[in-house]
Amino acid sequence: xxxxxxIFQKITIALLFSVSIFAQKQARIVEDFNKKWNxxxxxxxxxxxxxxxxxxxxxxxLPHDWSIEGAFDKDAKTKQAQGFLPAGKGWYRKVFTIPAxxxxxxxxxxxxxxxxxxxxxxNGKSLGIRPNGYIxxxxxxxxxxxxxxxxxxxxxxxxxxxxxxxxxxxxxIYRNVRLVASEKLHVGKWGTFVTxxxxxxxxxxxxxxxxxxxxxxxxxxxxxxxxVVNSENKEVANYTSTEKIGAKTSEKTVHDLEVKQLKxxxxxxxxxxxxxxxxxxxxKLVDNYETPLGFRYFNFDSEKGFSLNGVxxxxxxxxxxxxxxxxxxxxxxxxxxxxxxxMKEMGANAIRMSHNPHSLEMxxxxxxxxxxxxxxxxxxxxxxxxxxxxxxxxDAWHKQDLEDFIKRDRNHPSVxxxxxxxxxxEQFDSTGISITRELAKIVKSLDTTRPVTSALTENVxxxxxxxxxxxxxxxGFNYKHEDYKDFPTKFKGQKILxxxxxxxxxTRGHYDFPDxxxxxxxxxxxxxxxxxxxxxxxxxxxxxxxxxxxxxxxxTIKSQDFMAGTFxxxxxxxxxxxxxxxxxxxxxxxxxxxLAGLPKDVYYMYQSEWSNKTVLHILPHxxxxxxxxxEVWAYYNNADEVELFLNGKSLGKKAKQNDDLHISxxxxxxxxxxxxxxxxxxxVVLEKEIRTAGEASKxxxxxxxxxxxxxxxxxxxxxxxxxxxxxxxxPNAMDLINFEVTGGGKLVGVDNGYQANLDSFKANSCKLFxxxxxxxxxxxxxxxKIQLKASTAGLQTSVIEIKVQ
Length: 805
Fold this sequence. Notes:
10% of the residues lie in helices and 38% in strands. The chain starts with a strand and ends with a strand. A hairpin with a 3-residue loop joins strand 19 (298-301) and strand 20 (305-308). The chain contains 8 helices and 47 strands. Strands 22-23-24-25-26-27-28-31 form an 8-stranded parallel β-barrel, surrounded by 4 helices. A 6-stranded antiparallel beta sheet has the order 4-3-5-10-7-8, with no helix packed on it.
């Protein structure tokens, strides 16, 4: 039953998701449920019982990934694609007390993600299973709870059947968990849907659908109050209606509002509003619920590409997997913010959530930081890619998984397209037609405001049954950039995006001098002349056989207006899929930024093309053999030319010609200073120097922030660099660095970005690679200044201090 209330008043709104997390004075109580869990690897079905002895179990705080704690093993069942790390089974258990005064409330638990095959038990009762490791889900606990007494929750996680993925998944309750208590009359789970059917800077209409659940045994009359507030918490629109609802039922109510003189959400200014929904019985507040909102309008065009708020906008996108480097699959908003900040500073304005639903924190930050999101549901349908992947659960679960995915994310203003699949095998047979139509229909039943797309690999129409379904609003194509020029004729009238591109290979800080573009390997399974140390040159000249170099791809996308944009594979290196090498390589080479979050050189090519920052970047380092011929590259922008100097002597001026994205010189090495000067109209724009480093003298420690909160979640990333006495990076340093953390923090991860490093991410030491590594420190809850000591043989210990709020 839908009751419609038409009224337009002052208001503006955007799309987002949220539940208010306030103190108990709020009607809805949302509690962090991450702390003080017991955990043990193995299978312990008796752990569901209240009297089970867990004295030998670990005590830990969620989110938790047990795979990242394990050792790399060439014979691991997860295989190369998942980084040779362990999987298996594990159990989590927690004893907790529910307040007696919650007896008349509805109490539920929300899991943002458990990988995978979870089963949740409360006081011995199974609440259900959820095979999909990326889907958020929850259970109503009310009827099984002992109010005012002890309760036992147990979660079985079964990630034993391997291989089940083409990338690193992690294992365990790796995202956040919450306990939610509300009155019997409340907004349902993911119970709001806000859209803006008409949007302009002058005025916008807001359409809000609210699903109300009444768990009472009697009918209820209530007031439903909608308030729209801006980012300064000033109300810009409101509406109130009186409603009735039957006992033990769920009903939907609609409020329509209008906002005038609003601020639009954009990638440059991601201005957010929120919708506050309140329910009152008589004068008593019985529920409050917040929904994010951003006012924006966008369009995909078959000839002109993409526009946002009427402004032609190229999609400068990157694909990201869900892992957070040395933290594994553990989700932490501070890790995600660092990742997105690096992408934003590079100039990226879009993220493709590859190839599965990502976290609430990721969605929230994309809204707040201004990223266009391609939200993706599946990597496989009924046809498998690996032995134990999602195809086994497809028939029983795909409908509910897709529906829950859409409901959770549809209020985010950043989401501008729904992807129903990535490189799906059903492209190549007629079942692709029926399944594509079914999935598109499910999406449209829940949201008609965004196009449905799928990442396709086949651009021969006769072979592509997903395309033949006619159900896609937007065609996403992976790779084959050389074919794009034919698409306006081949796919006449279709809207087109490069949903995945590049797959170039680089290792940060390693340089083999260029001798032309090459593919490693030239085809699947072919031998190739790789490096003995499992590195790939950081010059942008090595690619996978199916892909392109960064420059090849970007030149193509840049020159074709009909292409809405591109999503680079990938923004960051990720654990698993270490093409082109076998073990001991255990993480990918595709990233623009390495696994430790340290940019590779090609980062600055994108920054020079995608951002409004003035860029001058030269490579490689300047520590070579006497008279060795070195190729020097420069990425630059906002200038006419660059002049290169070696020890004060000019080596000539160069400028990009035609569609060049870099310039280069061949230089005979002599120690000293390599200096580049960019000029525009004869005036200096930027200068950049690289000096030959002398002997290692000290460890330089640089933290990404000076203060953290004592909330047991906040992170600080410390970059460790080996320098000479003058502060120059020693580019080939590989020394072992030992770490000691005291005070209000603990060491939770180390990494150096080297793809074949088999040392544990959880060690108290890390070898430098190309002169650098990182240490990740997390708050331990103490209100004490954090001190990190970094030491190595032969040098004085370096110390950095972090304040704790």
